[in-house]
Amino acid sequence: MFFPRFTKEVPTRDSASQQRLGFGRAILIFAMLLVVVVGSGFVLRAYTVQHLPLKQANGVDVITITKEDLAAAAQLLPSVLQQPGVSSKLKSIENSEGRRLLAYFIPVDYVMQGMIANTGGEWKLFEQHKTVGMITEYILHPFAHLTEAHAHHPPEMQAHNPSMHDSPAMKRRIVFIEISATPGELTSPFDDFDINVTRKPLFFVDVHLHTGEILQVKDTPSGSGWGTVPTPMF
Predict the structure, then answer these.
(1) How far apart are alpha carbons 231 and 224 in whole angstroms?
(2) In this structure, how many other beta carbons lie within 10 angstroms of the beta carbon of residue 173?
(3) Partners of residue 105 on adjacent β-strands
């Protein structure tokens, strides 16, 4: 329907003008569809950003995978930031114009963390032979491994069960990202996800969800764990 019909007859002046009109109409329809599709994408993106589980704690913008983790992040992050090994790494960013600090508060075994930062070869799914199976499992059960730590276990069970204490479900990984842009553009946590900002992974901290114990602090290489593959901002 978008292309003029070709016939064996010699085109007359009227038929030629009708063909040009039909071709012009097709171009117009295609342009309108393009505007609607692209425009809808930007609208949906803006809606998603405004509904992210995002808050600010001690001057740091914190985003979690589940809303249930927001309270835990607000409780644990202040003590993490006071640790000498962490505060020394963040000193150069404090009170810097045009820069903000974003912290991803995620399960320590979050499958897609490689798209946030290069946290190790284990999360470079594209280099593994079981990539398809892992991604399929993540698509079919996206929140299965994210909500295990919220199960209602009695406090005495948590205190006397070493396996529960050492379970990955009881650990969280805090990935610190430096956000930079033109001065004046970063005015709120939601601005961290603007298209024209620069994101630089710095390091990550593993912390126990219930005891607040710092398990490890490790620098991350530049870029994400997916190499040159474009990754989403959230």
Answers:
(1) 8
(2) 23
(3) 64, 174
Q: What is the pTM of this model?
A: 0.74
Amino acid residing at 58: N
Distance CA 60, CA 83 (A): 15
Which phi and psi (to 5°) does residue 210 adopt?
-100, -35
Residue 181 CB contacts under 8 Å (≥ 6 apart), including other chains: 98, 191, 194, 196, 197, 198
Local structure of residue 41 (DSSP, 8 states): H
d(CA 10, CA 167): 79
Amino acid identity at 70: L
| 62-70 contacts at long range (C-beta below 8 A, 24 or more positions apart) | 62/102, 62/103, 62/105, 63/102, 63/103, 63/104, 63/105, 63/234, 64/104, 64/105, 64/106, 65/105, 65/106, 65/107, 65/110, 65/146, 66/143, 66/146, 66/147, 66/150, 68/147, 68/150, 69/105, 69/172
For β-strands 99-107 and 198-208, DSSP reports them as: unpaired
Cα distance between residue 157 and residue 164, in whole Å: 8
> What phi and psi values does residue 63 have, to the nearest 5 degrees?
-125, 140
pLDDT tens digits, the chain, 234 residues: what are they?
555 555 555 555 556 666 666 777 888 888 999 999 999 988 998 898 888 889 888 889 999 988 888 989 988 999 999 998 898 888 877 767 788 999 999 999 888 888 888 888 887 776 766 667 766 776 777 666 555 444 444 444 444 556 667 788 889 999 999 998 887 888 888 998 888 888 889 999 999 988 889 999 999 987 777 766 666 555
C-alpha–C-alpha distance, residues 183 and 216, integer Å: 33
